[in-house]
Amino acid sequence: MYSSYVKRNNARITNNVCDKVVKLAENETEQVVENFRRRNQTLGLNKNSPVKLQMDGTYQRVHIKSRHKMGQNASQAIGIACENETDNHDIIGFHLVNKLCWVGAWLRGKGYDVECPNHEYCTANTNIYDPLSEKDLGYEIGKKMAKLDLLVDYCTTDGDAKSVQGLQEAMQEIFDPLWSVNRLADTIHRGQSQFREVLRAKI
């Protein structure tokens, strides 16, 4: 009895802390954007000048593919966008995709017909069968940046990522149908690809 009470109390406290951490992160992001606008004005630029980003996504698994089961080998993905204008490279956009839900798993184990993410206290924000996509991460980050009235003109990513395409779709949907986000190659991945091509070359 006491153990179940402690678990419920810990869960309630954790939920309250999580909400406050999310609010704190959002406030800090707004402050970073405001500082960026003040910097633009100091440099004589329009305070709403487009921002240059660097963006990447990661999964909670080392390998996204699995030999032992169909589909992806991950259940969480996070995309992070940092401004590429200053030496600080502050985070100004992020999005987490989560398929994990302990409540849903527990209810299904008890025989209830529930589906994530459509039930109360669900921690998942996507269906377990939906593929994790960096393009979707870029789109969601783009929507969040649009709420801050931030346009993006250049974004640095690795070569195999579609995040820029998702970011551009969000910008076109909210700001301008003809807006274009230009992708810049990540120097590390570009250097690695050039090194591999040199090894393959027949000299």
Automatic annotation (TrEMBL):
It comes from the Eukaryota. InterPro entries: Mutator_transp_dom. Residues 12-201 form the Mutator-like transposase domain. Pfam families: Mutator (PF20700). This is Mutator-like transposase domain-containing protein. It comes from Mytilus coruscus (Sea mussel).
